[in-house]
Amino acid sequence: MPALEKDLKKEILKLPSNEKDKLLLRLIAKDKDLVERLHFVLIEGETTTEERRYDLKEKIAQTANGHYNHPDGWMLKAMRSLASAITHHVKITKDKYGEVELNLYLLTAFFATQPSQFAHLNHHNQNSCAFVGKRAESILKKLQKIDPDYYIEFETDMNQTLEFIHTHGPGFYARQIGLPRQWKP
């Protein structure tokens, strides 16, 4: 985004306050994420984070229960779409705990409902397995950024996820990127 020229900046600051307000509202309306963030902060008072997280978990569970013939087709598209929804949730709410929880839940939900899709690495699931490996690596990095007091809440699920990954199709990619077999907080 280009910076404003000093002269233009001075002239904008000289504008009457109602004129500046109109300009500001017009600019804000053009950025949907900013509008949603402002709504979350100003209207919801940042109190709906848990609700938003719960709704997203429901969406993940519902999507994971779908019928997928080929893992690298609709299932991978669904997982990527859900990962984008999680990223959007974090962008709006700044929910670092939820980012870890939801990403971990994304993997465990698909492992629980679609285990056969990850059983062995083959040409039908190589992209899905790579996605899972990268997502697990990302979760481990995000875990380092949250308060260590929360580690106990994620330890069991993270270790079960790593175990599943290393003993199934995604294990090949996990070894390539150096994913540990066990997470020790």
Number of distinct beta strands? 0
Largest sheet: none
Instruction: Compute the separation of the termini in Å.
Output: 40 Å
Rg over C-alpha atoms, rounded to the nearest angstrom: 21 Å
How much is the average pLDDT? 94
Structural class: mainly alpha
Low-confidence stretches are none
Helix content: over 70%
Tell me, what's the shape?
Answer: elongated
In percent terms, what proportion of residues is strand? under 5%
Helix count equals 9
Helix and strand succession? HHHHHHHHH
How does this model look, in words?
The chain is mainly α and 185 residues long. Helix content is 72%, strand content 0%. The chain has nine helices and no strands. The protein has helices at 6-14, 17-29, 32-43, 49-64, 71-93, 96-113, 126-143, 151-167, 171-177. The longest helix has 23 residues, at 71-93. It is elongated. It starts with 5 loop residues before the first helix and ends in an 8-residue tail after the last helix. The relative contact order is 0.09. The mean pLDDT is 94.
